[in-house]
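S2.1 Query sequence (sn-glycerol-3-phosphate import ATP-binding protein UgpC)
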Amino acid sequence: MAAVQLSGIFKRYGDTQVVHGIDLDIDDGEFVVLVGPSGCGKSTLMRMVAGLEEISGGDLMIGGTRANSLAPQQRNISMVFQSYALYPHLSVYENIAFGPRIRKESSASFKPRIEAAAKMLNLGGYLDRLPRALSGGQRQRVAMGRAVVREPSLFLFDEPLSNLDAKLRVQMRTEIKALHQRLRNTVIYVTHDQIEAMTMADRIVVMNAGRIEQIGRPLELYDHPANLFVASFLGSPSMNFAEGVIVNRAQGQGLALKLADGSEIVLESVPATAKVGAKATLGVRPEHIETMAQTPDAAMEVEVVEPTGAETHLYGKIGGDSWCVTTRQRSKVEPGQRVTLRLPAEHIHLFDTESGRRLV
Ligand code: ADP
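Output structure tokens follow.
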């Protein structure tokens, strides 16, 4: 087991800097997910931790030892990739045994570890099979088995579920999480899929353009995004936004956000940093909006109705922005109808439009 510390880590390819000074402390046994859009530097960061990519600057500590210039095999790390990279001509058993054999371990020493890993990963009945006779999920489990028998102090997963179909992805998500709960090893897991991040992580690191936007527990980030990027990245369908200017309401009735079309959304509770005249962006999640409100805050003309079974998504426009409202009731609303909406004050997020930062 190992704690991992990154201090001021950066990466340059020639003149181009792609990772800009990352500071991150990962506790021993923690499951940390790096998430962000494609190209934000997640894989580069992970590959620097693995030793597959040179670190241009900063310090990497693994288990209390400076690891910047250690060779990959000296870092006691196991990595699972998107492509399972199994040897097609070797059986499941031999694929898992490949690493220990290369390291010249005796069969008596690694056999029990392979059997335990196979049992844990439900591969017990498949040890004699070749990879081509396995399903995608089973192949991914073999790749994990290979990682597990190393008994590494740190597991690195790089988009391991991207090649699987949707149903299997959900199943493997649960399996990887269960595996972590059993082994309690330190995990760094890279994905662009925010649902994977939300469901699997102890802590999520949201990255954008080579920088960390926010670090926190999944629901902390969901409930209190620090900026517009995190607010829009986490959640599906994503948070609704309305841009406007903070104005005084008539007769001293507090403040409102005046939108481009002239309509106003009342701001019942206003953060101390929200000033009259400032450009602000209001955010509210689709599931927090109440429809058919007695005392509405806004109205939306419905353009599309999307029933998913458990819930229904209503899509339309508010102040020129596209919005989605999720209801758990079977909705009788038809496209073209106007619905009145209540935006509960406790679920309203306000951001400074220019900096993108949350107003607190
Ligand atoms: P992610 O994993 O988040 O999709 P990557 O870490 O793969 O992102 O890439 C981050 C950035 O670094 C991208 O802009 C990518 O084009 C760039 N990059 C990655 N590898 C190289 C390389 N070998 N040479 C130059 N640029 C690279």
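The longest helix spans residues 166-183. The longest strand covers residues 16-26.
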